[in-house]
Design brief:
Blueprint: E1 8-9, E2 28-29, H1 32-38, E3 52-53, E4 61-62, H2 63-85, H3 90-123, H4 127-132, H5 135-140, E5 148-151, H6 160-167, H7 176-179, H8 184-200, E6 204-207, H9 211-217, H10 222-232, E7 235-238, E8 243-246
Parallel strand pairs: 5-6
Antiparallel strand pairs: 1-2, 3-4, 6-8, 7-8
Helix pairs in contact: 2-3, 8-10
Length: 248
């Protein structure tokens, strides 16, 4: 688990002329990405249970495609039923079954796209909506504290502390009386230590402030520094600027 699918070699030598068959003995070290993924309960669906399903355990499939296949198969059976009911044969039978199958697949795909778009851009995104939903609904959409840490601009919107407490997620906070006595360097060091701890635990970061808006309108804020640091650590912004996850 901790070495991953592509173990990292301490003593690897590229294109070693003395070992054309790759028979050297190497010393391996754990892959930090594999360690993070080992604690990710949604790795089976590429860390996004809202958009992907994986019924076979082999490959994540976009929900839209899965629903298209299911609806298409159902449409094929229904088309066959209609053809039998009305006694159709030959090309008329084939045309009816094909039409209903294709129509069912199209409806399934459109329904899947709507479901994904609705959940990722509405239910699973904005802090104001998250704060209004019951915990059971948040858990259904994978928004539980086991795999999340919250960041954001201080005292903006619902506030990152309130959002973290709603989700049961990790957050960073130092008493104002202590924080105000720290230098900017000390403040960033404390922030960085928290982020590094969360990365080691394999957590995803959900935001109380929009990342894109912050980078555009508050580029010198501590939160903007945190976003840029996460990018350097291999994280990417997803869900319209409300979350960051490890790059695939």
């Amino acid at each position: 688990m901790i070495y991953g699918d592509n173990p990292v070699k301490w003593n690897e030598r590229k294109a070693d002329p003395n070992d054309p068959l790759g028979l050297n003995t190497y010393t391996y070290k754990p892959d930090i990405t594999a360690i993070m993924q080992s604690g990710n309960q949604y790795a089976y669906c590429m860390s996004n249970p809202l958009m992907y399903v994986d019924p076979t355990g082999n490959i994540g499939t976009p929900i839209s495609w899965a629903l298209a296949v299911i609806a298409g198969v159902a449409g094929g059976f229904y088309g066959n039923y209609l053809a039998d009911r009305y006694g159709l044969t030959g090309w008329k039978r084939a045309a009816l079954i094909t039409g209903v199958t294709v129509g069912g697949a199209a409806i399934g795909f459109i329904a899947g796209e709507f479901l994904v778009g609705f959940t990722t851009t509405f239910l699973a995104s904005t802090p104001a909506v998250i704060m209004s939903l019951p915990t059971s609904v948040l858990t259904l959409f994978g928004l539980n504290g086991n795999n999340l840490a919250v960041l954001g601009r201080y005292a903006e919107g619902v506030g990152y502390v309130n959002l973290a407490q709603k989700l049961g997620a990790s957050f960073f906070q130092i008493a104002t009386s202590v924080w105000d006595t720290m230098s900017a360097t000390q403040q960033w060091a404390a922030n960085q230590k928290f982020i590094d701890d969360m990365i080691r635990q394999g957590k995803h970061f959900i935001f109380s402030s929009n990342a894109y808006d912050t980078l555009r309108n508050a580029a010198n804020s501590p939160f903007a520094d945190e976003i840029r640091y996460l990018e350097r650590m291999g994280y990417v912004i997803v869900e319209n600027g409300w979350k960051m996850i490890p790059k695939k």
